[in-house]
Amino acid sequence: MNDQPVFEAQYVERHSRLTTFFRLLLAIPHLIVVSVWAFVAFFAVVIAWFAIVITGRYPAGLYGFVAGFQRYVTALYGYVGLLTDEYPPFSSDTSSYPVHLTIPPARTEYSRLKTLFRIILAIPVFIISYAMQIVWEIGVLIAWFVVVVIGKLPRGLHDMIVLGQSYQQRSGCYLLLLTEDWPPFLNPGASLEGGGPTGSLPPAPTTSGAPPAPPAAPEAPGSWQPPASGSGGLSSGDPLDR
Question: What are the tens digits of pLDDT across the range 175-200?
Answer without folding.
Answer: 999 999 999 887 765 543 334 445 55
